[in-house]
TrEMBL record:
It comes from Paenibacillus athensensis. This is RNA methyltransferase. Keywords: Methyltransferase, RNA-binding, Transferase. PROSITE patterns: THUMP, UPF0020. InterPro entries: RlmKL-like_Mtase, RlmKL-like_Mtase_CS, RlmL_1st, SAM-dependent_MTases_sf, THUMP_dom. One of its GO terms (molecular function) is RNA binding.
Length: 386
């Protein structure tokens, strides 16, 4: 089991960011597909990818892929795979499923067929008719797309956005993976100021601090694959965690500030920063965007403003965006990155974005509006830019 095929899943639009992260981990053989990145690696990569990937949702092991237009084809194709190489005799192995544009459209039926085929293969190896399933957990998924069955095992468990530092949430929290993606796409570096005037529960400042200090985002949580001693021995997990701890650069000074008009949100942000061990590494304050005054040169303003789809009051949203446009217009040396579904964002900013990238904040289609320092100003309504 030296060479594996792993799949890092992610929201649409972030595939290239995930691929870059994977290559920076040293896995050059990475292929970008819709909603995922496929790469080849050794078993140690299961631990390293789960610990280090900031923008992926899950890391899956590809077990096999084959045509399955009938239940017989699904059964035989599944049984042909070497499940006992992965699953010990006491393994718990629930089967999840999904189907799209395939003749086998009944997901429960497909799950049952896959489960039965795996059990039959396990019987041959272990010589028993019944499996207690009281050991390590291996969640198996059968995904059918255009009559092609893809079978995977989930190494991650709860999505990678669940870092472990956020116990409380605000009304409309930004996922940690999306916040990290925004910081990575900004190309921000730890020697530059960073400001978020709509920080909410503090996700962008916290993720930025973790990036600035090179803290692996998975260090504070566990993964089901840590119990897979037959695949990823404990010494590999220990080596991966030691590598991550050794890589932390906690002597790097950070200039990160987050503010929000909602005092309760700032309380949540402070609690999350403390849980992440970063409460003294950046400033959080209660402040309306109209009074925001970022300090320093060549900084990055990275933010996810409130919007009507989430919070309901379109007039307040419009006013907040106009005020944001006024503030950013006074920051000619700063780059600005705004995640918003608003089609009027450029109007409020009084300049066209240098680049727009379509992203999904949950199910809401957004654009990441990117403005380089001293961006081009266009004539129109909205805030006045200098």
């Amino acid at each position: 089991m030296q060479q594996l095929i792993l799949i890092a899943t992610c929201p649409m639009g972030l595939e290239a960011v995930v691929a870059r992260e994977i290559r920076e981990l040293g896995y050059a053989d990475a292929t970008v597909e819709n909603g995922r990145v496929v790469f080849k690696a050794d078993p140690l990569a299961i631990a390293r990818a789960n610990l280090w990937l900031r923008t992926a949702d899950r890391v899956l092991v590809l077990m096999g892929q084959f045509t399955a237009r009938t239940f017989d084809e699904l059964f035989e194709g599944t049984r042909a795979l070497d499940w006992p190489e992965w699953l010990p005799e006491d393994a718990e192995f629930p089967v999840q499923g999904r189907s799209h544009k395939s003749q086998l459209s009944s997901v429960p039926a497909c799950q049952g067929i896959v489960k039965k085929a795996i059990v039959e293969k396990m019987k041959l190896r272990y010589g028993t008719e019944w499996f207690a399933e009281q050991g390590p957990r291996y969640v198996i998924e059968v995904a059918l797309l255009n009559d092609i069955a893809t079978l995977t095992i989930d190494t991650t468990g709860p999505s990678l956005h669940k870092r472990g530092y956020r116990k409380l949430v605000t009304e409309a929290p930004l996922k940690e993976t999306m916040a990290a993606a925004m910081v990575l796409l900004s190309r921000w570096r730890a020697d530059r100021p960073l400001y978020d005037p709509f920080c909410g529960s503090g996700t962008i400042p916290i993720e930025a601090a973790m990036i600035g200090w090179n803290i692996a985002p998975g260090l504070r949580r566990s993964f089901p694959s840590e119990a897979w001693d037959n695949v990823v021995p404990p010494e590999l997990w220990e080596a991966a965690r030691d590598e991550a701890y050794d890589a932390v650069r906690d002597d790097v000074p950070l200039d990160i500030v987050g503010s929000d008009i909602d005092a309760k949100a700032i309380d949540v942000a402070l609690a999350a920063a403390k849980a992440a061990g970063l409460s003294k590494q950046f400033a959080l304050r209660v402040e309306p965007v109209a009074k925001a005054r970022p300090i320093g040169e060549n900084g990055c303003l990275i933010t996810n403003p409130p919007y009507g789809e989430r919070l309901g009051d379109s007039r307040e949203v419009e006013q907040a965006l106009r005020q944001l446009g006024s503030i950013t217009g006074q920051l000619p040396t700063w780059s600005v990155f705004i995640l918003s579904p608003s089609r009027q964002l450029e109007h409020y900013m009084a300049r066209r974005a240098d680049k727009k990238r379509k992203l999904f904040n949950g199910r809401i289609e957004c654009n990441l509006y990117q403005y380089w320092a001293s961006g081009h100003i266009f004539k129109g309504g909205g805030a006045t830019a200098k």
